[in-house]
Design a protein that fits this description.
Blueprint (H helix, E strand, L loop, with lengths): L11 H14 L11 H8 L3 H13 L3 E3 L5 E3 L20 E2 L14 H13 L11 H13 L7 E4 L2 H12 L5 E6 L3 H9 L3 E8 L2 E2 L1 H9 L4 E5 L12 H12 L5 E5 L19 E7 L1 H4 L6 E5 L1 H12 L7 H12 L5 H21 L11 E5 L3 H10 L2 E2 L1 E2 L10 E5 L8 H12 L9
Parallel strand pairs: 3-13, 5-6, 5-8, 8-9, 9-10
Antiparallel strand pairs: 1-2, 4-11, 6-7, 10-11, 12-15, 14-15
Helix pairs in contact: 1-3, 2-3, 4-12, 6-7, 6-11, 8-9, 13-15, 14-15
Length: 443
């Protein structure tokens, strides 16, 4: 043991494991400062390089974060505890509106698309050495990108949005670099960034997207990358407007070397226009996933970006999985070609339920947010209590802790699972469970 620090070991792996155990059992608390590397090396009787290697391993695992001369400390939410685990068990008879899944009734049938893709693969087998991107998929993706005013760039295919974001961050940044992310924002992204050894810098959001002043502060503070959700932001439901896009472009124009990543997972389920930021910085990428429109199990996203970024991503991808199954790519082509999903119909369905819930909550004096997508974000005074009371009332909602860092407490309700006749019931339950509206404003 090491005084107030329960750290021991002689090799880097042993020191890292000791710190990780201490974090897991509470011996090292979230936010606690770790000893300087040279000091710890002297106390353990090892080379400082050994401690440096241990700290590097801990950063890569998302256990600690390093802020230059301010030292290393345990992350507020270590990656050893995934945000997805922040949920209540749903007993029988409780209505689950917590998971963020699309409405199965709005997903297309896949049999015909995969049958046609399999027949094509029988006739034209994909062998080693061929392009990782199906030519027809690339053509359809490029046409859609062009229609939305996204700058010309090469196309890559990844296993979903998170896979794409991870690969883009990994080919540009090094451990210790800072990444600005939305707060509240996508829980998986909030886990991913520190798991890569990167520092998370929160940026506030409202109905129109990231707040320009927060983005400016983050950039002035030295962040190396910014991740922006264009539409159907999770959990807030924000969608970047034309005026917000202009303001953000102006901010980014003064920081041309920052990496800008846009997540447009709302493509195919949102009827609001896209206002892309792509191209304002030298390094950029825009990602579109098929998960919400065609089902999460397809595990496919298309990405475009500047040539250097896409080339690095494809090069690293070749050394790992190689490519996303061309069988899956060809099935997605069939879905796109056949118009399997009408974004206007899907958006209208989610919008009707979302707007009805927001209106019902407002009638009961409960403010909430949800401009696009399938979720409604409800500020609360006591998050844990609200989740527990709603569970007792027969409704399982997602605790806001899964999605926020410094943002005020809230709960997330997914409308995709709600029948029209359930709107009033869930609004009554929420109003009863959360009590008076929180005093703190979201602005």
């Amino acid at each position: 043991m090491l005084g107030e620090y329960p750290i021991e070991g002689r090799r880097a792996a042993e020191i890292a494991a000791s710190v990780e155990r201490a974090v897991g059992d509470g011996g090292l608390e979230p936010g606690q400062l770790l000893p300087p590397m040279r000091e710890l090396a002297a106390r353990l009787g090892v080379n400082p390089n050994t401690v440096a290697a241990a700290y590097r391993t801990l950063r890569e695992r998302g256990v600690i974060e390093t802020a230059g001369r301010r030292g290393s400390r345990v992350r507020p939410k270590p990656a050893t505890t995934a945000r997805e685990l922040m949920r209540a068990d749903v007993p029988p008879g409780v209505r689950d509106v917590s998971k963020g899944n699309p409405d199965p009734a709005l997903l297309p049938a896949l049999t015909e698309a995969f049958t046609a893709a399999a027949e094509q693969s029988d006739e034209e087998p994909v062998l080693y050495g061929e392009s990782s991107v199906d030519p027809e998929l690339e053509r359809y993706a490029r046409v859609a990108f062009d229609a939305d005013g996204i700058p010309a760039g090469p196309v890559a295919v990844t296993s979903g949005s998170l896979d794409a974001i991870e690969r883009v961050l990994a080919v540009h940044l090094k451990p210790g670099d800072a990444v600005a992310v939305e707060d509240p924002g996508w829980g998986s992204l909030l886990d991913l960034v520190p798991a890569l050894g990167l520092r998370v810098v929160p940026v506030g959001v409202d109905d129109e997207g990231p707040l320009p002043a927060d983005v400016e502060r983050a950039l002035a503070g030295g962040v190396r990358a910014v991740v922006v959700t264009d539409r159907a932001q999770n959990p807030w439901g924000a969608a970047v407007t034309a005026s917000r896009a202009r303001a953000l472009r102006k901010v980014f124009a003064a920081h041309m070397d920052v990496l800008l990543i846009e997540d447009d997972h709302g493509h195919g389920i949102v009827d609001l226009p896209l206002h892309p930021l792509a191209g304002v910085t030298r390094s950029w990428a825009l990602v579109r996933s098929t998960a919400k429109a065609y089902g999460p199990d397809l595990r496919l996203a298309v990405l475009t970006g500047d040539p250097v970024t896409v080339d690095r991503l494809l090069g690293r991808q070749r050394l790992g999985p190689g490519w996303v199954s061309r069988l899956v790519q060809r099935a997605v082509v069939r879905l796109w070609a056949g118009g399997a999903v009408d974004a206007r119909v899907v958006a209208a369905s989610y919008g009707r339920r979302r707007d009805a819930l927001i209106a019902a909550l407002a009638e009961r004096g409960v403010p909430s947010f949800g401009r696009s997508g399938m979720n409604v974000w409800v500020p609360v005074s006591d998050e844990t209590g609200a989740v527990a009371r709603l569970l007792h009332a027969g409704w399982a909602v997602a605790p806001g802790a899964r999605f926020r860092m410094s943002a005020p407490p809230a709960v997330r309700i997914t409308v995709a699972a709600l029948a029209d006749e359930e709107i009033v019931a869930v609004a009554d339950a929420v109003a009863s469970a959360i009590g008076p509206a929180p005093a703190r404003r979201y602005d």
